[in-house]
Specification:
2 helices
Length: about 110
């Protein structure tokens, strides 16, 4: 009886071993081919995303550089305007001081 079980077991193992498909790339099934296409599409998408990200980063850097230059120019112009306004205010204060001094001198003469 034991020999019979052993024979059946060995026969079953031989049959199951023969059913297993070998890894032959030339004999790929539909699921494997579809998987390869998905892998290729994912690789292409990744490459495109990397390229787009690099291009966007370059454009962002250029825009930041231009913005920085414009801000610097605006700050310089604002500084010049403030300096001119300060000079004009100083000039007017000086004129007012001279008028006050003249008025004070005239009062002292009287």
């Amino acid at each position: 009886m034991m020999i019979r079980y052993a024979a059946v077991t060995l026969t079953a193992l031989a049959l199951l071993g023969g059913c297993q498909k070998k890894d032959d790339p030339g004999v790929a099934g539909p699921a494997e081919r579809a998987g390869r296409k998905v892998d290729q599409a994912a690789e292409q998408a990744t490459a495109r995303l990397d390229s787009a990200a690099k291009q966007a980063n370059e454009q962002l850097s250029e825009a930041a550089k231009e913005t920085s230059q414009r801000l610097d120019k605006a700050a310089n112009q604002a500084g010049e305007t403030l300096n001119n306004a300060t000079k004009e205010a100083g000039r007017k204060l000086e004129q007012a001081g001279e008028k006050m001094q003249t008025a004070a001198e005239e009062r002292e003469k009287k």
